[in-house]
Records
---
Amino acid sequence: MALRSMVRPASRLLTTARLGASVRLASSSSQGEFNETALSNGFRVVSLKTHHQTASVAVHVDAGSRFETPEINGTAHFLEHMAFKGTANRSQQQLENEVEQKGIRLDAYTSRESTVFAGRCFAKDTGATVDILGDILTNPLLSEDAIEVERRVIQREYKEVNAIPYEVAMDYLHTAAYQNSPLGLTILGSPDNIQSITRNDLSNYINTFYTAPRMTLVATGGVDHEQLVAAAEKAFGGLSAEDKAPAVPACEFYGFQVTERDDFAPVATIAMAFEGAPLSSEDYYPLAVASAAVGSWQRGAGGAHTSASPLARAVADESLAQSYQSFVTPYSDTALWGVVFEAAYDQVDDASYAITNEWGRLALYSTDNEIQRAKAQLKAATLFALDSNFALNDHVGRQYAAFGRYVSPAEIVASIDAVSPSQVRKAMQEYIYDKDPAVAAVGPIEQLPDYARMRYDMSWVRS
């Protein structure tokens, strides 16, 4: 969790400074002053300075369920839960008191390709926040009592997540699409793994994945880069410079269907997706524009009958579903491009056909005007999602995971602007039209078309 620009990157002033054996890159743009420094052990320090009085500070780690095996699946997420339970230098109570006194808000989250430990603070407390995050990540206590407490928390979380049809369908979608790859594993892990993960498993995971080359400290807001580097050197300078993680096996996409029928559920939840282009591909933005053209809709939302999306109008006018959402889920070397929708049991067949028919129409008959509207919508959604220090921090971390560099919002907008309608149609024909979809469906799905019918619908379009 990455972008190749379709236009020339903005000019960047490069300077080199000696900080131990570190290298510094600096640039300035309308988004703020950007700086990057690599410590001698390979730990990266990145800052985007703005005129805020607050800051968002986060350590982005290349560690998630994709880097696990079935035997240890769930360890990255379990370790995230252990983050704020005390260190060798601070008890949990001391940690909580220090955070509360400074008004720092700590958070952590795990995805399939990364784990992030973050703190939001006043700009003047950036150094203290780095020190806390460094202590948490390099000196975790991992007490047996805390492990057992968090084990019960995660078990409850597992039950809660698996009671949400959308979450179940999306996990099943990954299982179907990437069935022979760790990318098909869930983030939480299986109930058996949650029950059996030990302190030794957590410690081994830290030693393997929490090394300098796999970690990036990102700070956005009212930050001073030189002070940030000094704090990072103190907190993370002692990390191993060796990347000990095993190579991630290449993933292969499968057209496959996973279903779980439950006729007592109020609605069916169905996710359908194809293998899209990763962020580093020149086809990513044409497909992202196509996804924006498919759009989204939910019952109760106003304006559906006059929506720019033909699919949204059809779903609203003909009552084909309760809601639908087009999505693009990119990874370092692949992506899922598709739609997830909710429908009553007697709407499933018609909704499925309407969606596949719309995909084919976009590939063959989409108009220049609708592509231009989709580009405007995608640009707006991109910029609206980056209107806080915390969101910017997550954005910068994702760009480094994908590209090894910062991709500014302006560069992304320029890449979207460069997409032509013919590129969108070409990408749809190459990745979507007449291709094998992955399908996951839960709930009252008696009327779900069989896979062969859905596959056929992807090669025949009623114009």
---
Amino acid sequence: MDDENESEDPKKLSLSREIKFMMYGFGDDPCPYTQSVALIEDIVLNYINEISLSALNMGKKGKITVEDILHLIRHDSKKYGRAKELLISNDEIKKARKGFEEDKYHI
């Protein structure tokens, strides 16, 4: 089923596998209707496309920055808070990896 979407256009992004897992995690059936997955995938891809185009038109020409995305979602407190949380976690992971690399070479 998933392979049908992926084989039509190799450049087309498919999130159906991840969406199925997320739907199940939020209480849906382990094998949700294909139409439900396709609808959610369409909504998600449209949202990503709209945000990306808005961010592209905001900042430096031809470049999207994290600040542009944060600026666009600043009025949605849940999205903004989650994005900030993920950015902080990403920085912590980078620092931890750097620490391991330094320890590796100083032993």
---
Amino acid sequence: PERSSYCNYPGYQPTMFASSAVNLAQLAAFLSLLTQCRSQYVPGKINGEVVTLDSKSFPEAIKDPSNPLWLLKFYAPWCGHCKKLAPVLDKTALQLKGQMAIGKIDCTVDKGLCNQYKVRGYPTLKYSIDGEIDDYPLGRDQASIVKFANKMSAPPLQSVASYEEAMEYAKTKTEDGVIFLGYDPANKPDEAPSGFYQVFSKVARRKQASGNFLWLEPSDPESIKTPAIVKRIEPDVKVRFLENVESLTVEALAEWFTEQSLPLVNMLGANNFQKISKMGRPLAIAVADTEDTEQVKALKEHMLNYITSSENEKYYYGIMDGKKFIRFLEQFNVEEQHIPQFLVLDGPTKTFWQNETYSNLFEFVKAIDDGEIQSEMASRTSRKGILGKFEHYFLSYFPYSLVVLLLTVFGFVWMLVPAYEEDPYAQSALEEMMEEMEGTDKPEEKEGDETKKEK
């Protein structure tokens, strides 16, 4: 019988098969079967192990009221990184039993499901909350996954009594400093929640993984004359407002939150780089030595000055560790000895603009806009050594570099060609050259002599 028939058999008990385990091979097979049966999805069951999901069980699992929060691993059996992640998830699933379920989907079997959620590499981690699926935003180590589960298990919306309290929360209780503060004078403490409060609460629940949401409940409501509003608050950054919110739908408000959820200057790394680079704008990156805290601080202030000078929303902005990620950055012509420097990258097309001679972001972006810095395509292989540098500069300054190369080659060949002076009182230069040629060995003869010598 197939494994599934054993797992689904109503009277299934380990003792049914234990008696047949007369040797180690049978015992190992039995234990393997037992493990596989335990990892199958069962509706309503609180799991302490990684659960195998497929196209049939997946839709039911993510809407299971007993498991409202899932971490989902889309993988392939042959993937080395997937195998490395497996024991981490096994340990984490046991630790988070009852708090967050962990499921795995084999993309070599359920290709349609993986295509539906735009899985492009393995492993891909996503999460589901109340049936809504989004990209998992943190690291793949056990501590990061537990941290994520704790954040998602906390109330998605917290109350504050004043704007000052909200700002203090942004400074001390968030990692990126960005919070969203909602307020509606129609939402009375002793009455049914207002329509906008309900919309704001639903979005806070849906976007809890990537945002921090507060609701203003002033001790003296009469002191606030503001209509229903949402404020985006980030320390040292001008507050952004969203007004006329009473008629907003959950989808419209969620879209605005997604656009505004990033800090103006992000610390880019493996956890967020791909997500930010695919959000619809190119990335303006300051490549820095992050061990130099003064350098990072100065670069962040410089980028904030640029961004806030004219509300520059053409790019997303971030700082990347030029030493830790140098192998990645080499495909964009970044060299460690030229750090810090600026780089603009369009992630989906792998088009970039780079020139290490610019130390000012204002001037760097202007040079791009004026066409002084030309776009290039990322190279999968890093350019190292003399040949790599030659290729880089040749392509960067083409077609002028081609002219210089041709002139150099022509000059070199010209120096190798013998010069013959013409004597007006002697035979013509052509006749003189012919006589000299007749007095030398013919190529055929010379080759023949060399062949004889070799023999």
---
Amino acid sequence: DQDHAEAVPLFRLSANQGYAESQHQLGVCYAKGTGVAKDLAEAVRLFRLAANQGFAESQHYLGRCYADGYGVDQDHG
């Protein structure tokens, strides 16, 4: 919707500056196709960036992506 379309450039700007929460939120947008074209590989990339900074919600989402095979090869490791 319009709010997400307006938020995406702001999320992208701060995500590119290394802000974990913005990386996560942008990842959610890509995962859902909200305000951007759906791109699970990009969502996983962004979740990984945020998770590597200790952002717990991204760690959870990244784990779910691997468990369910969204944007990555499925790994129940």
